[in-house]
């Protein structure tokens, strides 16, 4: 049996970051992953350009049963810290919108950078063989993969969440955590399209239409684009709100964000002979304007409609209620909400309170960021926190 100072399970964003930091502190580290190459989700992220962080990172852009948990790690490893690393490797980057930073070239550069950091620290990376056993006794963790059994006093769970199983994502982290007596907050797909049924299926005819909206669920709201799909609703505003949405709850869509109350009435005064179709069509994509106008029974000219009818239409267009039947599930979810309970972990080191030497980082933990680079920032920050502790 080979001995290490630490074994990291998962060669993804958090695992590689953690291993590189620990290795460069002189720790003898082994990373194990069943995939045949490291960082597969990094490679497909951000449309192949990896939205690697967000300059607007603040703790309230993360969802967790304990909203304070992420504070410490996020404060100690910031987007600027990761950017320093990216620049030290000469990786060109740009800011898109809303503080989202992307590689100019390819996400591959981020994986190569993390592997180079691991190599600097003498980290061994074992790929392509399944983990068949994990045990703990006498203060050491023993892991069997392929034909080999290895041991270390520290074990880091960094196998992520179950979103996109066809890429090798699994619920392994949760099974392992439960076996060691750690609680798991019910995992749900997040940053995921929502499905519609019943009468709302009629919106299918709008498949491919996108428009800027404000999407609301409970107290959360996001002003970004929404997209009608064959299954229901997608686009950034919907993906964002899906993290907050619960089965059975409605969502409200403001199709005309930023309009002053009474704008239709005002238009009636200014251009009474304008048709409703043309008026809505000037503010919204034409097919959407026609579909909404039809559902609200708005026909003819503005002058044909009473002020009360126009006011009611405005209210509906400003808070159109959809009752999603569900989500498109883990198969299409960018991340998982829920995971290993933060109540089980130290927010400074990510070490389990009940079992010394066991750590959990990244998406495996019940911390989920907004769309836009926040999830990678959590992976880097939690990885660094554990890497400095093991
Ligand atoms: P990650 O999933 O990266 O790594 C886990 C590793 O564990 C994988 O290498 C996997 O093979 C391995 N593993 C799993 N089960 C195992 C088992 N049983 N045995 C051995 N190994 C196992 N975020 C963001 O901030 N910006 C973005 O642009 C994007 N874009 C994006 C696009 C798409 C399509 C998806 C699906 C996701 C994103 N994300 C994102 C989310 C981001 O990819 C995610 O939050 C991080 O990769 C999480 O990092 P982790 O290291 O925790 O898990």
Describe this structure in words.
With 390 residues, the protein is an alpha+beta fold. It folds into two domains: 6-189 and 335-389, FAD/NAD(P)-binding domain (3-Layer(bba) Sandwich), CATH 3.50.50.60; 194-327, Elongation Factor Tu (Ef-tu), domain 3, CATH 2.40.30.10. It has helices at residues 13-24, 40-44, 71-76, 79-88, 108-120, 172-179, 236-242, 263-270, 276-283, 286-295, 307-318, 374-387, and strands spanning 2-3, 6-9, 29-33, 51-54, 62-63, 93-95, 100-103, 124-127, 131-137, 140-145, 148-152, 154-157, 184-190, 194-195, 210-217, 220-228, 232-234, 251-254, 320-322, 326-327, 335-340, 358-360, 368-369. A hairpin with a 4-residue loop joins β6 (93-95) and β7. α1 (13-24) packs parallel to α12 and α9 crosses α10 (286-295). It is elongated, with a radius of gyration of 24 Å. Residues 9-15, 33-35, 40-41, 44-46, 50-51, 131, 158-160, 163-164, 168-170, 172, 334-335, 362-364, 373-376, 379 line the site of dihydroflavine-adenine dinucleotide. Its cofactor is FAD.
Number of helices: 12
Q: What share of residues are in beta strands? A: 25-35%
Can you tell me the overall shape? elongated
The name of the CATH superfamily of the largest domain reads FAD/NAD(P)-binding domain
What's the pLDDT, averaged over the residues? 96
- Number of DSSP E strands: 23
How many structurally independent domains? 2
User: Which ligands, by name, code or SMILES, are bound?
Assistant: dihydroflavine-adenine dinucleotide
Main sheet: which strands, in order across?
Answer: 19-18-15-16-17-14-20
- Poorly predicted regions are none
Question: What is the CATH topology descriptor of the largest domain?
Answer: FAD/NAD(P)-binding domain
User: How much helical structure, as a percent, in the residues?
Assistant: 25-40%
Radius of gyration: 24 Å
Report how far apart the termini are. 20 Å
Specify the structural class: alpha+beta
Largest β sheet strand count, sense and barrel closure: 7 strands, antiparallel
CATH architecture group name of the largest domain:
3-Layer(bba) Sandwich
CATH class of the largest domain: Alpha Beta
